[in-house]
Amino acid sequence: MLIRELRQERSLSQEQLAQTTGLSLRTIQRVEAGHRVGYASLRALAATFEINVDLLERELYAMNTTEDEFIEKPLWARFILGLPSLAQLNTSGLIRHELSLVVYALFAYAASYVVPRVETDYWGLTTVDLLHFSAFSALFVAYIASITPRLRNKFNSNVSTKHEKSI
Fold first, then answer.
1. DSSP codes of every residue in 31-70
2. Which of 21, 40, 79, 164 lies 20 to 30 Å from 132, alpha-carbon distance?
3. pTM, entire model
4. Measured distance CA(99)–CA(17) in Å, rounded
5. pLDDT per residue as tens digits for the range 61-90
6. Among the three residues 48, 72, 96, which one is the final residue of a domain in this structure?
7. Residue 25 sits in a domain of what CATH number?
8. Residues 92-100: contacts with CB under 8 Å, at least 24 apart
9. Euclidean distance between the first and final Cα of the chain, in Å?
10. pLDDT of the chain along its 167 residues, tens only?
11. Is the dihedral of CA 161, 163, 164, 165 positive or negative?
């Protein structure tokens, strides 16, 4: 847990932290075990570690619960960030991927004016319909690739990064 990590970074024992904060040893043990403690105790811990008390409360109680998973990272964002083809790419790779999809969409759309309209075995669609669908699909995936870096920045910040910013 966060308090244990902060305490160990400063080479403090639980007893020393209790004495420094003015809290009981049992309170320190409870907060390190993930149990809720009062706001006054959180204020004492936040003051000792020089962290914003609201940030500390959020990190302790909200980030590790399944309910917060839905609040902090919606299902659609978890789906997009979990796509294997996009998860492996860094920002420049995503930009190249997006650009290639847009170029393909333009090519497919332009090709729809050149190819003859022939009915296919796919639900009675014509070749032109399939090219339009292909172009639309490529643009949709390009859009997903374009928002992925912003989703990563918004939802994938970890506890230690927020903790370092607050100190």
1. HHTT----HHHHHHHHHHHT--HHHHHHHHHTTTSHHHHH
2. 79
3. 0.47
4. 54
5. 764 444 444 445 667 777 777 777 777 788
6. 72
7. 1.10.260.40
8. 94/145, 94/146, 94/148, 94/149, 97/142, 97/145, 98/142, 98/145, 98/146, 99/142
9. 17
10. 578 888 898 899 999 999 999 999 999 998 888 788 888 888 999 899 888 888 888 777 764 444 444 445 667 777 777 777 777 788 888 888 899 999 999 999 999 999 999 998 888 889 999 999 999 999 999 998 888 888 877 776 443 344 444 44
11. positive
**Residue bearing tokens 């910040």:** 157
Structure token pair of residue 35: 């149990």
